[in-house]
């Protein structure tokens, strides 16, 4: 998938501080897909496991103290390497789940075209809202990412989400392979109406969504 998207991302417009030009409203960034070494992916996966643990362990206070020391050592190690958006690899490694960004759910786009974008993955302990069900605020994050990608593939990339409506049809489980598909429903001037469905591998509908992506005007952030 990377080659096609590399080209598109190179000319894509995304928000950020290191602008090198303007296209539509967004600053245009150097946004080539990041080419990382072999340790970046495992580092992100380890950080995701730490997120799972941080929301789930019940440990003695001295264990939290020891973990805090390790966390502070990591902060000291990484802090000198802070980089502007569009330069740090997180969010730009298209072959990693969630583009290698901890903000994104760790899903992998497996098909993308102007007609359809499909992504697969699982939610995990970090995403639990209650009783092992995925938090109702996490699912729109997945849909919004899909709508952004769908809009991008439909060559409507300089767009932002105007609204995102989610119907929660069934409880969404963690640690279960799921699939989401998103497509353009219709285009009206600046407005791209997008729809998506989240299903389990048996085809059971868990949630669906409709969104409005609005093409930005020059000067809009
Ligand atoms: C491969 C890369 C993948 C990346 C994925 C990442 C995707 C992430 C996408 C996002 O999450 S973007 C962040 C969340 N969204 C925002 O922060 C948007 C904040 N809102 C705005 O900036 C402005 O509202 C916006 C620029 C979108 C629109 O403002 P405008 O003043 O230019 O639009 P205007 O109010 O004139 O509305 C334009 C049309 O949209 C309609 N509209 C706007 N908001 C609407 C709304 N909420 N509901 C229904 N219709 C709406 C409006 O009626 C009108 O329709 P008509 O053209 O038919 O007259």
Please give a handful of descriptors for the protein shown.
alpha+beta, two-stranded antiparallel sheet, six-stranded antiparallel sheet, binds decanoyl-CoA, about 220 residues
Describe this structure in words.
The protein is α+β, with helices and mostly antiparallel strands and 221 residues long. The protein folds into 2 domains: 93 residues, no CATH class; 117 residues, Thiol Ester Dehydrase, Chain A. The protein is 26% helix and 28% strand. It has 4 helices and 10 strands. The strands form 3 sheets. The protein has a 6-stranded antiparallel beta sheet with strand order 3-4-8-9-10-7, with helices on one face. A hairpin with a 4-residue loop joins β3 and β4. The N terminus is likely disordered. The structure holds decanoyl-CoA (MFK). Decanoyl-CoA binds next to α4, β7 and β10. It is an enzyme of class 3 (hydrolase). It is a peripheral membrane protein. Belongs to the THEM4/THEM5 thioesterase family. Keywords: Apoptosis, Cell membrane, Cell projection, Cytoplasm, Fatty acid metabolism, Hydrolase, Lipid metabolism, Membrane, Transit peptide. Its EC number is 3.1.2.2.
